[in-house]
Design goal:
By secondary structure, the protein is an alpha/beta fold. The protein contains 21 helices and 17 strands. β11 and β12 form a beta hairpin.
Amino acid sequence: MSLQEDLNSLIARAMGGGGQEAIAKQHARGKKTARERIDLLVDPDSFQEIDLFVTHRANQFGLEKEHPFTDGVITGWGKVDGKTVYIYSQDFTIMGGSLGEAHGLKIAKLMDLAYQNGAPLIAINDSGGARIQEGVDALAAYGEIFYRNMRASGVIPQISLILGPCAGGAVYSPAITDFVFMTHENSYMFITGPEVIKSVTGEEVDFATLGGAKVHTSLSGVAHFSEPNEEQLMAKVRWLLSFIPPNNLTPPDFQETDDPPSRLLEDILEIIPSSPNKPYDIHHVIERLVDGGEFLEVQESFAQNLVVGFARIAGQVVGIVANQPAVLAGVLDIDSSDKGARFIRFCDSFHIPIVTLIDTPGFLPGVDQEHHGIIRHGAKLIFAYAEATVPKVSVILRKAYGGAYIVMSSKHLRGDINFAWPTAEIAVMGPEGAVRIIYRKEISASANPQQLEEELIMQYRAELATPLISASRGYLDAIISPQETRLKVAAALDMLKEKRAPTPVRKHSNLPL
C-alpha cells in the first residue's frame, strides 16, 4: 500500500467519527452529526479542517484502550456568503463529545486563529461535559477556552449553537459569547443536571423544564434565538451574519436597496392610537421604517416590553431598540434593562449605529423590582447608552416620562440626533399622575373633582408635556412629521456615518454589573 493510500485510509477512519452505530444513534435522537452541521452552515465545499489526526494522550480509566482521531471535536474554517468564519463542532459520536485536554486545546488553537485573523467564531456545542477520566487537565482546557472568549469579546463576533447537552462548566463559554442559539428539542443548558438537583435539594425536574430552549429564551435570557430544527437554526445564523461585521475594525456591509430613503410612512398614524394610553405593536412601526420591512429580532421571547434587533435603513445596518407598548405598556424593568444594555454594547463594539424608538411611561414600580435591583439593572442601560460612541438617532413617538426619558438615548446621554413626533409627551411623569400630586388639595376641595382633574390634565399636557419645550431648549433637534420618520432617520444616519468620538484613557469602565 502506497503512502497516499495509507493517508487516505487514515482520513477515512477519522472522517467516520464514532462509527456507523454511533452516527445512527445520533440521527435517531433527531440530531445531525458534527460534520453535517458544518455542511449545513457554510458555503458548499468551503470548509477546511485542521487537526484531523489529533488524539488524546490519557492512559487511565480505560482511555488507554482507544485514541480516536479528532478527539471528539471538528475544527476549521469556511465561508458563509463568501466571508470567512471559524467553526468548531463537537462530535457526540466520539466519547459523547466530552472535553478533554486535546479536545480543549484544539478549540483554543482555532480561537487564536479567529482572533488573529479577525473573523467570527462559531461554536457548535453537543457534549457530555468535562471528560472525567482526564481530571484537572479537562478543567484546565475549559479555562483556556474561557480566557480566549473574554479576549475576543468586542474584537470578533462569537456565536454559540447549543445542539445537544451543554452542562456544568461548559455553559460558561456560550454565556460569554455574543449570541446563543438553541433548538426547540435536544438543546439543554444547566450548571447541574436533574439528578444532582434531586440529590441535593430533593427537587424533581426534567431536562427541558430545567434548561431547555423555552426556559432560556423566555425566562433566563441566556439564549437569544430558538428554532424548531437544525436546518432553520443554521439559516437564522447565516441571516445574523449578514448584518454583523467580521471584526471591530471593519464596518458592517452596505447593501444596495430599491427601498428609497425618502419613502413616506403613509399609514403610520393608523397604527398608533391617538390616545396615549392605548397599546399598539411596535413591530408594525419598525417594519415600515426599515428597508423592505426586514427585521431580525434578538431575544424576541425575553423581556418583550423592549424590542431589539438588526435591520437596514437606506442600505446601512442599524441596531433597533424600541419600547413595546403592547407589553406592560412599554415600561422598563430589570430584564428589559439587561436586554437593552447587552444589545447596545454589542452594536457599539462593532460599529453598528443605534436607532431608538421611544414610547415608555417609565420604570416599572413595585417591591419585587426594587428588591431585585431595578436601580442597578436600570443603571446598566444608562451606562450602555452613555458609553456608546456609534451614531445614535432616536425618535420619541408618544410617551417619554421621568428617568426613562433620560435613559432612552436622550441628548443628555449624548444622543447625536433626537427627533420627536408632534404627539410626543416629555415630562417628569404622566399628566394624570402629575396633576393628582400637584393639585391634590384643589381637586379634593372642588365641587366637581372629576371635571377639574380632566381640565388640569389637559392644561398640563398642553403646557408641560409638549415636545416644544424640549425643542426650545435644544434637547430635541427637530419635531418631525410621523410620515417623514424614515426620511429623517436615514438623513441623520448618512450625516453621522463618519462620526468620531474620543473616549477617556482608562483600563476599562466599571459597568454596574
